[in-house]
Amino acid sequence: MNSNEIRKSFLDFFASKEHAIVPSAPMVIKNDPTLMFTNAGMNQFKDIFLGNTPPKFPRAADSQKCLRVSGKHNDLEEVGKDTYHHTMFEMLGNWSFGDYFKADAIAYAWEFLTEVVKLDKDRLYATVFGGDEKDHTAADEEAKELWMRFLPANRIIYGNKKDNFWEMGDTGPCGPCSEIHIDLRDDEERKKVDALELINKDNPLVIEIWNLVFMQFNRLASSELVPLAAKHVDTGMGFERLCMAVQGKKSNYDTDVFQPLIQKLAQLSNKEYGKNRETDIALRVIADHLRAVSFAIADGQLPSNTGAGYVIRRILRRAIRYGYTFLGFNQPFINTLVKNLVEQMGGQFPELKAQQNLIEKVILEEEASFLKTLESGIIKFENYCSKLSGKTIAGDFAFELFDTYGFPIDLTQLLASEKGLDVDMEGFQKGLAEQKARSRAAAAVETEDWVELSSDIHPTEFVGYDTLTCECKILKYRKIKTKGKSLFQIVLDKTPFYAESGGQLGDSGYLQNINEKIKIDNTIKENNLSVHIASTLPENLTATFTAVVDEDLRQTTQNNHSATHLIHFALRRTLGTHVEQKGSLVAPDRLRFDFSHFSKMSEEEIKQVEKIVNDLVRKNLPLNERRAVPIEEAKKLGAMALFGEKYGDKVRVIQFGDSIEFCGGTHTSATGNIGLVKIVSEGAIAAGVRRIEAITGKYAEEYVNNFITIHDNLKTQLNTDNVEQSVSRLAAENAAMKKALESFKQEKIATMTNTLKEKVQNVNGVNVISGVMGMDADSLKQIAYQLRTTGEKLLIVFGTTDGGKPNLTVALSDDLVAQGLQAGKLVREAAALIQGGGGGQPSLAQAGGKNCEGIQSAVDKVIEIATK
User: Which of 178, 377, 453, 795 has the fewest beta carbons under 10 Å from its own?
Assistant: First the structure.
């Protein structure tokens, strides 16, 4: 069976067992502060397991795209070095939401593995939870008994809490799990060592392929386990590992999941897979990382320097670096493999094909940029080594290369070994640990357990589309501490507060009753809960409150949200239908709109977009809102869906005239409420992605009025009604004056050069021209450069304090450089006297500083060193 057939057989099997087959959720997570990427199949069902959302169906199955770059076996720097770990992978999974439990989960798994894909029963083993004394949990004898219907007792193994008790996090749903392992070794190897001794021992051919999790407990912040009201099943099977087992391979990378990419890459690099370990690792790294980066970009996550974007950039840069170092690629190459990936996986994941052009262009730009960075880093490394007195590269320098230039430490070690040098790994690890500690501290949030005030805990009813006030009661609350500040998270039974999502910032306002008033600072969405953030709690938590949204902030925010829709519409009209939204920020005072487009917008295009938008504003188009529209019906209406967004079976559609989009945010009742829309900037944020920033309403008025004020002031100062003409004239006069001044400066330089030629002094056999001059540093540099070729054994040393800052210039004739003198070294040694530093070429260098009084001493110091 090929990989596509294996995936289909899994989904068909569970469809026959009455499971709803659901599409993969995006790999990039937008509205969960606890996760950047989907790292397990259960992520899209997290809200159900937490009890925040009722299940749509009792059973489900899917193939979920996942990304892992940290944790057990998933350190990014290790991927590609073994045969079975990856960054991006597919997780085949089946779920039961309070329906079947252990018996059916185990029976389904056995039937699929042995009857459908026909794995050898004699090579299969199962592990079950062996209990944990600290948690007061007993061994899972029920699971063992169920497995004994299919396996002999000696192939069922008790596992510890680390391997056989699954937890969502420090708190939340959890339970024992049962892993299915397979022995893929040759018969001779199996005879030598029993597989029982190799299970969960990191053997590459005795591996776990399926994990069946039986969620039956909830972990409290106190670590206590309490039973869940409803028991669930959550299973996950590594698709790539399953393909390895079914196709009889010894490595995931030998299956048809990876081989087409690896062979294409081998062809491009003129290498052969399987002949050289370093080459093989490089080929595996690039094939793996291409998948991760391509799927992330397709889901809307572009490489950047922060957050999820930084993770994607790190993955891509690691692939580029392996190609550069081990395959000889010094030009962009990964982007050319995207079409091969699309051919292979675009059928199962249509977002890849739809976003192919964007993926290729983003990767191409990132490659070109990082290859330049690599060259800069190598130059920096070479410069560092040229000044190194010992045999060890400092750990802090190795960490700087890693942190600033993207050099993995093994590249620095490789470059060092070629020069017979070592790297201070202890110092490097210290820098790395400090960076991780800073990141953890910045992101650390201490969270207490939810305190439930009602026995009827149900999803919050959102009424904020229709009203800004409503009566409500507190369902539950908890205390959190972040960055040393204590806050409270409050969940209401009903709320008019919009929770931050889809780029729109959350509402603020207050909760009030006759006795007290509590300020709500923000509203966020967490695990599908609308969470209201407050600095204090009400004294009477069980009272009935009136929830009130800040009307002014809501109005300006929703005006801006509607404006983003109009801008999107206008961009597609002006630039073409290739334009798609790639991100947005909707705040009360500004908006930001990211979109796909491959060139800078002209001034005419920006004006045309503004004109279309403001025409629509002036038409005062009413909001046409449709709620709970079946998604296929919404698509027929022409509503635009965004790639990387997870939509349900029913969606909300927002329409202003011909602008129609899927959207869950709040919007103005008519476009006239927006007022003036003014684009204040347009620029690139990534390859093929542009960003518009705009303001509306009173903020746009202030912006325009500020320009009118500037214009009026210029009219007064220039004593003219035609400001543009006067400014153009002044600019032309200024350019002419600059040209005249430059000509005068060059004449002065020529005169000074001729004068100084006659002032050579011989000091210990060196011809010296020196002095502290009343000229600017650039002029002195030009004079020194011209003088250095006018004689032999010539040393030129000039100092100046022009502009209130000391500057030292040193130049050497070529014969002095040949004798070993270096201008750069001379200025560095003398720069301490002016409290500064500098450098340059062997024949010409400059240094700047802070201490003007030391400039003569610095000049004398250079002469002293060079003539001794």
Answer: 453
